[in-house]
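Notebook entry, structure prediction.
Reason for the run: the old model in the group folder had no record of what sequence produced it. Starting over properly, with the input documented here first.
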Amino acid sequence: MEGIDRRLRALVAESPSIFLFHAEGGRIGFESKPGADPIHLQRAGLYRAFIERALRDFDVPARGSFAIGVHDRSHSRYDVPVFEYQKQRGASTMLLPDVDLLAMDFLGGADFVDPVSFADKRDEAIFVGSTTGGIITADTVRTLGHARLRAAMYFKDKPGICFELPAIVQCDSPETEAMVAALGLGDRRREWAEQLSCKYLLSIDGNGANCSRVALALHSNGVLVKYNSPWQLFYFHGLEAWRHYLPVRQDADVVAIVAQARDAVERDAAISMEAGRFARDHLSEAACGRYVAAVMRHYFAWFGSA
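New structure, fully documented this time:
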């Protein structure tokens, strides 16, 4: 593409969370961004190391520049090729694995292995997380105009469903934070090991797709129950509703799933097995490395330097 380096550089200059990377001689580097968010800088470093290793392990010839957006949400459509780890359905962004999941060993790490068999799980659903999903104002709290707040309030009196938000974040003021706390939506964090005693593991969007919870649920012996989402991760196109997870469009669907658990044992056991197979095939560090190598091979074939 004519002037790709110049156009990438212009985009990177405009965005505090898009980094410009360079590949040459088997090495990957990225340009510094003065004043960059430390989290963004850390992610850029993790991507540099992971991509360099993938290119080396799979012998991918790479010479040229590429850009990665390390923000939680894709901010807009771009007129140049940009990599991100999530995007809205239909966007042209190219997707990479969420490097934080790899760094924290969420993809098959020993600390996240499910010790509870499907048969031994309780017929209950659970979500424990934070109030991410946009800035929360006093009006947001009063109207429950926030997906996670709405769901948490709906499920407060529903048997067999635990939906808690002990981490109150993204409020516009201390007063708003106090309003959320007064709703009584949970006051302690629950380790993943504790949540695994439940059969149904809920996923609902926060700042984009629920990256860690979906991956952990697919790796578990339980069943992923996934709210409909406009956000896409690199492997979502391979997930099939009713084969790898139970789809949810509204809160009442979760109540129905739990109520019908005893009559759906065979269905849910099959979904759990298929999800586990999918996770082993596509959500390991080795599988992510293969994917990244394939994507970068195509990218440099089109946009690499001669």
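Summary: The radius of gyration is 21 Å.
The old model has been moved to the deprecated folder.
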